[in-house]
Amino acid sequence: MSGKLKYTFSEKIWQHAAPGGWYFVSLPEHMAKEIRASLKSEEEGWGRLKATALIGSSQWKTAIWFDTKKNTYLLPIKAEIRKKEKLTAEKLVEVAILL
Question: Which residues of the chain are modeled with pLDDT < 50?
Answer without folding.
Answer: 1-2
